[in-house]
Design goal:
Distance between the termini: 21 Å
Largest sheet: 4 strands, mixed
Number of strands: 8
Strand order of the largest sheet: 4-1-7-8
Structural class: alpha+beta
Order of helices and strands: HEEEEEEEEHHHHHHHHHHHHHHHHH
Shape: globular
């Protein structure tokens, strides 16, 4: 999902080594975001070698950082501050560890490590000092969050004051001054509250949820201010960027149930439905192949760099399968409210053929993932390969999922996986590959379940919310058991690259909670109209394709000059995202909605 320019930026190595022997008299190289300067002073009579590994990298082999000559020499290295590092100093004789430590270094800081003989003992020791205090990397984020909170509060308070201005004589005196208004003339002020609006039939919570996911997606695709937690996780684990794709898939499932239900009640035949969703699938696939694969440098549709899998391709195929399920096995009439023993689970029992197909698909995923033999790799391997897992399986990135994609697509797939930077992998791996699409369908089916709950318990809001909560609890417990509540040590780790089963259950839990919360606030209580997320939510295809094609042209972005901090990058990410939300609002006012 990352655009090309962001991918090139993220290829910067975790550790950039710059050695400078002799005495440390200069301030060091210019540091960029997520970097610090670490200087080693060797006061021993033998050469010292420094090795490092990231604590986020699972069982990774130590990498050589720098060598320091003996007799009061020093050497400097630019290190990453994204994750904690474990650093080890060794003498010329390998495996003779002088000292070892784990520390998270601050962005822009200058640190010194003095390797010397301990006064209390004859063993060497490593003493640390701070030569230059690090920057507060999170200050731009805190300031932006405060400004956004003030803006959001103003949008909430201003309409409230406007609606209540006629309920108080004091406010009337302030807002109704002028020759045409007076405290005694309430006709003009009371005209607005007396107007009534028809109750909308469209679920505002669904559009709001979709718009919220799309807004976060645009923000992280613009770089997320350069913060690592707004970028995809290197392999296992979750970041903010890992949340948006399954939210979209979940929303697709819910929308399929509600939209197809409406069309079926209008008498649309199965053949017409089949034509409609087949055409929409073709359009989504073509958008993914042609437009989002476009490169002005290489020319359109150059086979040398064409990526066959992709985000829109996966969304289109997932939509096609979910639409098939709803068309052929979803036309069930909800029975009357008479008592039946299966009433509490009627939204499941009535659609048992769909459940049977989903269980078979998930069984297929489990069998291929854990039983399919992969050459030179252990069966059931779920790791990133490279230097991970003690470097035993360097070419096994993704296990069976990666092997299948490389057989089918060759080099026409994602060449810069998120694990490349941290795990030093050499194999291409596509997070939108074939095997992960199975669990994408399962994720969409959970969204279909949300739609069935809304239909089955129409106008019974307590039942709808309680069932959303039950599903969230079941899926959350399942994710906790599969992952053992750890990042790397579970039966099936939470992994967005693989779209693992635990990832699907975890994101299903979040999706039910978010949709339930928005349904309560926007559709039941009507405390919030969904602004501003509802605007991009009702024009999602336009905003997604538009920001992918034009997102890195002015005025949405520009060539940044301040590379030493997050300020400019965060401003650019927020600016680009705000522009697309504004465009969606203007299109909403013009009643223009791009549909396929």
């Amino acid at each position: 999902m990352k655009p090309r320019k962001l991918l090139q930026t993220s290829l910067t190595l975790l550790i950039l080594v710059t050695s400078s022997y002799g005495r440390h008299s200069n301030p060091g190289p210019d540091l960029k975001m997520d970097q610090a300067l670490l200087t080693f002073h060797n006061q021993l009579t033998k050469e010292v070698h420094i090795f490092y590994t990231s604590d986020y990298c699972y069982k990774c082999v130590y990498q050589h950082l720098v060598s320091v000559k003996p007799n009061n020499s020093n050497a400097s290295a630019v290190i990453s501050t994204k994750f904690s590092l474990t650093v080890r100093a060794e003498s010329q004789t390998r495996n003779a560890t002088l000292c070892r430590w784990s520390q998270t270094y601050g962005e822009g800081g200058h640190y010194s490590v003095w390797i010397q003989m301990s006064e209390a003992a004859s063993n060497p020791s490593c003493a640390h000092s701070v030569d230059k205090r690090p920057n507060n990397a999170y200050l731009p984020l805190l300031v932006s969050a405060l400004l956004l909170a003030i803006i959001a509060l103003s949008f909430v308070v201003a309409p409230y004051i406007y609606r209540r201005r006629c309920t108080s004589k004091f406010i009337k005196t302030i807002c109704c001054q002028g020759p045409q208004f007076s405290v005694d003339n309430d006709a003009a002020c009371e005209a607005e509250p007396n107007t009534t609006k028809a109750t909308p039939t469209r679920l505002r919570s669904l559009d709001t949820f979709r718009g919220f996911a799309l807004t976060v997606m645009v923000f992280v695709n613009y770089g997320g201010g350069g913060y690592w937690f707004f970028q995809h996780a290197p392999w296992n684990g979750l970041t903010v960027a890992d949340l948006v794709m399954p939210w979209f898939v979940f929303i697709i499932g819910t929308s399929v149930v509600l939209a197809f239900r409406s069309m079926q009640r209008r008498g649309v035949s199965r053949l017409q439905l089949l034509r409609k969703f087949t055409w929409r699938t073709v359009v989504l696939l073509m958008l993914g192949f042609c437009f989002l694969n476009y490169s002005p440098r290489d020319g359109p549709l150059s086979w040398s760099w064409l990526r066959i899998p992709g985000v829109l391709q996966r969304l289109g195929f997932t939509y096609f399968v979910l639409a098939l399920l709803q068309t052929f096995w979803g036309q069930k009439e909800i029975p009357l409210r008479s008592y039946h023993c299966w009433n509490p689970i009627q939204d499941v029992v009535l659609y048992w053929p769909q459940w049977l197909i989903i269980i078979l698909l998930e069984t297929l995923w489990l069998c291929i993932t854990f039983l399919m033999p992969v050459p030179n790799c252990p069966t059931g391997y779920l790791g990133a390969g490279g230097i991970g897992d003690d470097g035993l399986y360097p070419n096994c990135t993704g296990g069976a999922a990666g092997y299948i994609d490389r057989l089918m697509f060759g080099d026409n797939m994602y060449r810069y996986p998120t694990c490349k930077e941290l795990y030093h992998t050499t194999q291409p791996f596509d997070p939108e590959g074939v095997l992960g699409t199975i669990n994408s369908i399962v994720m969409g089916f959970l969204g279909m379940q949300a739609g069935k709950i809304i239909i089955s318990y129409k106008a019974m809001n307590v039942h709808i919310l309680s069932r959303f909560l039950v599903w969230a609890v079941i899926l959350g417990i399942s994710a906790a058991i599969l992952s053992k509540c750890t990042r790397d040590g579970g039966f099936i780790p939470v992994n967005k690259n693989l779209w693992s089963l635990s990832y699907v259950t975890c994101m299903g839990c979040f999706s039910f909670l978010l949709l339930g919360g928005m349904y309560f606030v926007t559709d039941i209580k009507r405390w919030w109209g969904g602004q501003p997320f509802i605007y991009p939510g009702m024009n999602s295809i336009f905003v997604y394709v538009g920001h992918s094609l034009l997102g890195f042209y002015f005025p949405f972005s520009w060539e940044m000059r301040l590379q030493q901090s997050h300020w400019e990058w965060l401003f650019q990410s927020l600016w680009g995202t705000a522009l697309w939300v504004l465009i969606a609002y203007l299109l909403y006012r013009k009643k223009f909605f791009l549909k396929i």
